[in-house]
Amino acid sequence: MTWLSRRGDTALSGNSHQGSDPASPSANHSTTRPIEAKPSEPAAILTEKPPVAPPEGGHLLPPDQLNELKQRVHEQLVRELDLDKLQQKRGPELRKAVEGALAVMLLDQETPISRAERQRLVREIADEALGLGPLEPLLDDPTVSEIMVNGPRKVYVERNGLLSLTDVYFRDETHIMRIIEKIVSPLGRRIDEASPMVDARLADGSRVNAIIPPLAVDSPILTIRKFSKDPLTAADLIRFGSLSEEVITFLKACIEARINMVVAGGTGSGKTTMLNVLSSFIPHRERIVTIEDPVEMQFRQPHVIRLETRPANIEGKGEVTQRQLVRNALRMRPDRIIVGEVRSGEAFDMLQAMNTGHDGSLTTIHANTPRDALARIENMVLMANLDLPVKAIREQVASAIHLILQLSRLRDGSRRVTHVTEVIGMESEVITMQDIFVFRQQGVDANGKIIGSIQPTGLRPHCIDKIEREGINLPPDLFAPRSFDRGSYR
Ligand SMILES: Nc1ncnc2c1ncn2[C@@H]1O[C@H](COP(=O)(O)OP(=O)(O)O)[C@@H](O)[C@H]1O
Ligand SMILES: [Mg+2]
User: Fold this and answer.
1) pLDDT value at residue 294
2) Closest Cα to atom 10, ligand 1: which residue?
3) Using CA positions, which residue lies closest to atom 15 of ligand 1?
4) Which CATH number do you get for residue 172?
């Protein structure tokens, strides 16, 4: 007989508040009352007169013993789980059943623990059994945007662009490995000495990278970029000061007028987020084909086809590259092609597409300046080994790409658009560009926050003609330089 049928009912119904703060009186109350109300429960005595009165929420057991208890109960849970019964339950219901069972198991233990500790253990063991263990609270925390496991006791998070060490920890390196395996094995991937690096995606869309020893020298390393359920919008970016309303007005007109754009920036500078915002301006009547590795973008438009690359399987077969997908996309009658990030040979096919009637295509690239972005695209095409002379490649680049949006993550953690740069053409061997908007820093405030804003340079973009031909009229002073007045740009 198993716990579920033996005495699950009382425990289950008594644990309906498992999500609430363990320190709150109501959570304590609802979890413990039904169990303590049963005089036959030996553990109830323990909670009435603990050998040493622990402060509520404080540690009674040394961490070692607590861990040992945790492990023991976890093993008991695995041993006694009635899988047939559990499989009929899902999501919150399953969680509730497991937490109820754990509460009972913990009460049955000889080891004395405080209520708060018991509640914490119930949560942690359930996280371990059903989820990603110590990472669960971080995955649930909406203020955390990235999670970085550098070692069992070195778990960092990013909040508002800044890193901080958490008090979340793993038992040891093997524990981290177990969690990594838990992420990758349902996807038919594996991680071991033969394939020590893996990219994966969690069920909620969060991106995961894992790399293990010997490549990662000290510990298995796990990096999770959390999927935001509400992607940032243009209004958010304006509110954060990442760009201005004028810039958005211009970019929206560019999208509608099918200007080909490249979003450039470093890792985590906000490229994908910007691509998402830009694509939200694409008219709903258009057919969009996206190519990503892995998929991240979120669309509101009805007519979107999402393609995703596939890594090689365990025998090294079946890989599908971005380049193959771009070529396939061209046969799908796309109005727009969006490539999540160009990294290699697909750059060539993307240029071809942009130059042959698939105007309004978008992509991102890892680059530090607009000029760097062009150089990298050129390099990618060269590397694709097509035997094209550099000048020919450059001409292709110059005619395909109309606008570059440069993003940066500044020292204070803020993400900003630093340049909106137009590609004009070629002068002998060199691609010519002009900045339309640039970020101007004015100083740093007392908290180290960078003060500044993105300003028009005063140059009128050439693409304005194309925009006007589309019947879009921009405010005449949109590109006029602002006067410098009383220490601030206006
Ligand atoms: N302008 C912004 N202001 C604040 N946070 C941002 C901004 N743009 C992106 N982010 C956040 O930064 C993280 C990385 O963004 P992402 O677009 O994935 O970067 P990239 O594609 O350049 O690696 C995400 O958590 C995202 O929500
Ligand atoms: Mg990205």
Assistant:
1) 83
2) 270
3) 270
4) 3.30.450.370
